[in-house]
Amino acid sequence: AIYGFSGETCISHMESVMAQSADILHPQLEEYGGPKPVVIPVGADQDPHIKLTRDLAYRMRRFLVERRGDYISVRGKAASQELMQAAESALRGTGLGQVKRYEEHIDITDLQLREGQRIDEAQQEIEELIIRLETEHGEYGFIPPASIYHRFMTGLTGGKMSSSKPESYIALTEDPKEAAGKIMRAITGGRQSLAEQKKLGGEPDKCTIYEFLLFHLSEDDKELLELDAECRSGRRMCGNCKKDVAERIKRFLDEHQQAREEARERLPEFGIRL
C-alpha cells in the first residue's frame, strides 16, 4: 500500500525496496555494534522507505515498552515463554518498582524513581534493558530509525540528478577538469540575451550554478547575498559565475581526492580492507 504496487509490478522493484530497508537497518546488526539510534538523511520522495523500515523494525521486535499513566508495561508481542520469564527476572532486578507478570505482558507499578528521575527516563531505561535482552536471546532488537528531510538540489541539466544522466551531476571521483566542463555547460537562471539579463536581471533561485555555491562551495552568507543581489539586478553575468564555480569545483575535487587517497592508506588501521 505504501508504494502502490499492483499485481503487475516487476519483482525487481519489490526487491529493491527490501534492499533499501536492509541498508538502513544493517548498522544495528551485532557485527556493527548492535541496536543503536540512527538518523537517515533522505529526500522527500524517499519517505516511503523510512515508513516501511520503521514498520519492519517494529514488527521484528519481541517486546513493546509502553507508558500507561503512572506505570510502565512491557508487552510481549511475539515473545516465547522463555523470553517472557527472562524479561520478568531482568525487570525484577532493576528495583524500579513492583513487577507483576501476566500471560502476555509485564507491568511495573509503584515506580521507585531515583531522585530527579522522570517516568519517561525510567521507561527509556527499561527499553534499553529489553533491547539487550532480545539480542542476548538471538533477536535483533532494532530501534526504529529516525530521518531528516533534505531539499533537492537541481541537476546541472535541470530537473533531478540521475545516475543515468552523467551530465546532471558531479561525482566526488570525477576528473576535476571534466567536472569544470559540466559546470560551464550547466543550466542557469540567466535570460536569453545579455541585454535581457541587464534589463530584467537573472533568477538565482532557478540557477544550478548558484545552488552549487549555496549548498557546497561558499560558507560566506554575505557573499551569497551579494551574488543574489547582483544577479537579480542584472549586474552579474552567468559566464562570470560559471568560471568562478568551475575553478572552485576543480580546487575542491583536487583537495578531496588527494585526501581520499591519503585516507585509503590508513584503512587497515581501522580494520577496513578494500
Q: Could you characterize what this model shows?
A:
Helices cover 45% and strands 11% of the residues. The protein has helices at 11-25, 47-59, 81-92, 119-136, 176-185, 194-200, 208-217, 221-232, 238-264, and strands spanning 39-43, 63-68, 71-76, 98-101, 105-109, 146-150. It contains 9 helices and 6 strands; from the N terminus they run αβαββαββαβααααα. It has a 4-stranded antiparallel beta sheet with strand order 2-3-5-4, with helices on one face. A two-stranded parallel sheet has the order 1-6. The protein has 274 residues and is α+β, with helices and mostly antiparallel strands. The protein starts with 10 loop residues before the first helix and ends in a 10-residue tail after the last helix. The radius of gyration is 27 Å and the shape is elongated. The protein has 2 domains: 1-150, no CATH class; 166-270, Tyrosyl-Transfer RNA Synthetase (Orthogonal Bundle).
Secondary structure layout plus pairing:
Layout: H1 11-25, E1 39-43, H2 47-59, E2 63-68, E3 71-76, H3 81-92, E4 98-101, E5 105-109, H4 119-136, E6 146-150, H5 176-185, H6 194-200, H7 208-217, H8 221-232, H9 238-264
Parallel strand pairs: 1-6
Antiparallel strand pairs: 2-3, 3-5, 4-5
